[in-house]
Amino acid sequence: MKKFALAAALMAAVGFTGMTHNAVAADLTLRISLQLPMKSHLGQNLLMFKNEVEEKSNGDIAVEIYDSAQLYKDKEVPAAVGSGAIEMGVASLTRYVGDVPAVDVFYQPFLLDSEEKVRAAVAKGSPVRGPLDEAIADTGATVLWWQAYGGSIMLSNGGPIKGPEGLKGQKVRVFSKTQGDFISAAGGAPTLVSGSEQYIAYQRGTVDVGMTGMSGVKSRQLWEVMDTVTVTNDADVEFIVVINTDFWNGLSDAQRDIISTAAMNAEKDVRDRMSSIEAEAYAEAKANGMTVYTPTDEEMAAWREVAKPVYEEFLNHAGDLGKQVFDAASKL
Predict the structure, then answer these.
(1) How distant is the alpha carbon of residue 247 from its chain centre?
(2) Count of beta carbons in the 10 Å neighbourhood of residue 331
């Protein structure tokens, strides 16, 4: 916790010129940590939230967005928000796996393999999302909204990954424990790399293959260090926006209403636009020289076969909650 307190003190001292707003007259300030650039669709989604909150509160609530991991890396956000070192943060859902192993239900390979299933799973209060939001609350953070990030794809150089055989002996960037299990089952060597450190990892050859969302390829310009996309769509990538629970409970009803309404609007907007966001990202990747490869039916069958033991591993370590949400997701 000393690290988070130090970061908060440093931020207060220097003001961080990267923030999107300097609140002078506001009665309340919400600081949000984001690992992605502001130009990313998650950054733009936060900007939508900021604008609505500041407008509806007549400037009484100010929102400051610290993008590009200038305050905290993705993996540090849960502790920073839970401890109150910062009011709000955006983190990959899987960053809560240490406290809530069941969150990795969204990374079970090919479990939520259609937009219809994903939408049903992420709906507020659904049998899948509802229990996860409640469990995350035990970490000291309250979930305000979920941010869609699209399907997980694979990045490589020199050609596509044509089925599990293509991962034999390859070091693979992953961003969840379950993805690591999936890669291990396929014969690869998983390496956990934060999203903000992806570019350098590919550039330096720390890993041979990457797993990420297609929108991240665009916002991070990963075509500069990788030349091929393999469209596996093996998992649904989700980010969540959380707020410190004690801070949240200390707000007035009027303040919570403004923030909650803006959060719901932001969640709907990013979810409804996700398909077009991905389509634009694919188009831009191709325009910048990337090859986009769609696996054959035979290759997809091989991927799915490799994934089967991953389910068992998840159910063995994710406890009763894991089984509960996995069963619910399986019925969608």
Answers:
(1) 23
(2) 10
